Amino acid sequence: MLLEKVITYEIFRPKMDSSKEVLHSIATLADDISPAFPYINTELGGWDYDQRNQVLLLKLSAGKWITLHAQKIAIRGARDIEESRALLEWIKGQINDIYDRRDLITPRYTGQAGLKVINILKLLPMTNCKLCGYATCMAYATALREGEITLPDCLPLMEERYREKRENLQAYLESFGWRALDAT
Ligand code: SF4
Fold first, then answer.
1. Distance of alpha carbon 18 from the chain centroid
2. CATH number of the domain at 6-104, please?
3. What span, in angstroms and rounded, lies between the C-alpha atoms of 10 and 132?
4. 132 lines ligand 1 (CB under 6 A)
C-alpha cells in the first residue's frame, strides 16, 4: 500500500472565498505518493500535471478540485465536513488501488489543460446549429475542453459525413487524457 498514513487533516473555510459555502482541506501524509501520479493522471484524467514539481491537479464535477503533492492532498469545494472527509477517503482509495495496478496502466505525463479550444473547434461541424444547447460551436468547444459535456452532445458530429472530424477529435482529446467530469 503506497499511502498508509495521514498525519494531519485540516478543514477550513478560506477567507478569500468566505462568500462561498465551500470548504477547503489539507491532509499531510506520512508517505510520498508521487510515484502514483502518472498512473492516476491516466486513470482519473488529470487536469494539469507538473512532473518537475510533482503536482497533479484533478478537476471533479460540481466545482470540486483535488491537488496532489508528494506528501499532501488539498481538497477544494466540499459542501460540508462529511463531504470533505468522503472525498479524502475516495482519493486515498484511488491512489492505493491505481498504484497497485500500475503495471497494467500506461503512465501519462500531460494533462487536459493542454487542450486548445481552437483545435477542438476546428474539428466540430462549425454550423452553430445550437442542437447541443450552446449558442455557438465555440461555446460547446469550451465546455468540452472543461469536461462538462461529451462528444454525443453534438448530434451532427455523430453523423457519417463528420466521421473523420469525429475520429480526429476523439484522438485529440484522448492524447491529453480527456474525460467527462461525471465519469469520475
Ligand atoms: S450541435 Fe455541434 S454543430 Fe451544432 S452548435 Fe453545437 S457544437 Fe456546433
1. 25
2. 3.30.310
3. 41
4. yes
